[in-house]
Design goal:
Blueprint: H1 7-10, H2 16-29, E1 35-36, H3 48-59, H4 72-86, E2 95-98, H5 101-112, E3 118-123, H6 128-135, E4 139-144, H7 155-161, E5 166-172, H8 184-195, E6 201-205, E7 230-235, E8 248-251, H9 254-267, H10 273-284, H11 288-309, E9 324-325, H12 346-355, E10 359-360, E11 362-363, E12 373-376, H13 381-396
Parallel strand pairs: 1-10, 3-4, 3-5, 5-6, 6-7
Antiparallel strand pairs: 2-8, 7-8, 9-12, 11-12
Helix pairs in contact: 2-12, 3-10, 4-10, 5-6, 5-9, 7-8, 11-13
The chain binds pyridoxal-5'-phosphate (PLP).
């Protein structure tokens, strides 16, 4: 008899990026000089003071279970950070530290949403939001955005998508996959719309907060009236180059955080004690190394954007944050490569660029925009230059 699985898990789509990275690895193993511009993590090492704090924690034997929501010192440091950087007043009881922002978002969705609820997700979106929503039994409602607004949700589109079942809006600024950043005025306009719909909470995914260029990051919870209905999610992975340490957190209304803490207590317990010590060091650290990392990202963004502008039939809005570019590539669909391969969609285009040009990217379909592709510039300038040379030649060869 076939094994019966929970339909919510069985119907979950595996990450579409896995197919690409699996093929990229296979090609690399066969000796192909593949350059990966598909990574969602900084190509920098964790800054030394953070790593040292982790090592010190191990040496001191700080290697046991901690309090489920995280040690008080870390939650106090997070409160101080949220006050200092974002103008947000939270108490340690409103902070829940978890194994990465991913867990924080998944738990928030699980706590707030039930069968029949709708969750608004502006597209292009981070791949996990719709799956987390479906897993909670709720319905993702995708709200498309385009290059005309630099992939930002407008108040009109938000209003049009709201129903009496809408429970949650998931915001991500700076955005993965587009790099777009909302200004304070743009966020205020969205908050004005939400004020007319009291039942809606907001998850504000601010994990790329410090990776901003021209723009200034504004915390959604800092907007008038939004503190009590926003769950601010942040983490250490991207801004402190700590993806492997698995440390993130949520800050929000006491009761929401309490419910999520209950879930965490039964499912995973607190994040690693060692990572928590490292997190305290990250928040206490001089921001010099982070500024240097962001300056390097900015130089690469400028370079890659200038190169893409010279590509035939490729439109790419200027991202003001994160480390991704999201060009529109629909004009290439229907064209044929010299090998005879026909490009039908973003997946075909990415497989072509990978298999024939040896550049790994992620198809826009994975992010809810079938006309785009995601380029990560978390790679060295040298790799970026070579990869863009190959992409330009490969795209120009399509007829
Ligand atoms: C927008 C966004 N949110 C959350 C995460 C998850 O980060 P973490 O490593 O803290 O789980 C990522 C990682 O790719 C991301 O891009």
């Amino acid at each position: 008899m076939p094994t019966q699985f929970n339909p919510r898990i069985a119907s979950m789509r595996p990450s579409a990026t896995l197919a690409m990275s699996g093929r990229a690895k296979e090609l690399k193993r066969q000796g192909a000089p593949v350059i990966a511009l598909s990574a969602g993590e900084p190509d920098f090492g964790t800054p030394a003071p953070i790593a040292e704090a982790g090592i010190q924690a191990i040496r001191e034997g700080f290697t046991r279970y901690t309090q489920n929501p995280g040690v008080p010192e870390l939650r106090e440091a997070i409160c101080a950070k949220l006050q200092h950087d974002n103008g947000l007043s939270y108490t340690p009881g409103q902070i829940l530290c978890s194994n990465g922002a991913k867990q924080s978002i998944a738990m928030t969705v699980a706590v707030l949403c039930a069968e029949g609820d709708e969750v608004l997700i502006p597209a292009p979106y981070w791949v996990s939001y719709p799956e987390m929503t479906r897993c909670a039994g709720a319905q993702p409602v995708i709200v498309p955005t385009g290059v005309d607004t630099n992939y930002r949700l407008t108040p009109e589109a938000l209003e049009a998508a709201i129903t009496e079942r809408t429970r949650l809006l998931i915001m991500c600024s700076p955005s993965n996959p587009t790099g777009s950043v909302y200004s304070k005025a743009q966020l205020e306009a969205l908050a004005d719309t939400l004020r007319r719909h009291e039942q809606i909470f907001v998850v504000s995914d601010e994990i790329y907060e410090h990776v901003v260029y021209e723009a200034e990051h504004v915390a959604f919870a800092s907007l008038p009236g939004m503190l009590d209905r926003t769950i601010t999610v942040n983490g250490f992975s991207k801004c402190y180059a700590m993806t492997g340490w698995r440390l993130g957190y949520m800050a929000g209304p006491q009761e929401v955080v309490r419910q999520a803490a209950k879930l965490q207590g039964q499912f995973t317990s607190a994040p690693s004690s060692i990572s928590q010590r490292a997190g305290i060091a990250a928040l206490a650290m001089d921001m010099g190394p982070i500024r240097a990392m962001v300056a390097a990202f900015r130089e690469r963004r400028d370079y890659a954007l200038a190169r893409l502008a010279a590509f035939r039939d490729c439109e790419c809005p200027k991202p003001e944050g994160a480390f991704y570019l999201f060009p529109q590539v629909r004009p290439y669909y229907g064209r044929r490569a010299p090998s005879g391969r026909v490009i039908h969609d973003s997946q075909d285009l990415c497989f072509y660029l990978l298999e024939e040009c040896h550049v790994a990217l992620v198809p826009g379909a994975a992010f809810g925009d079938p006309d785009g592709i995601r380029i990560s510039y978390a790679a060295s300038m040298e790799d970026l230059r070579t990869a863009l040379d190959r992409m330009e030649a490969g795209l120009n060869a399509l007829e």
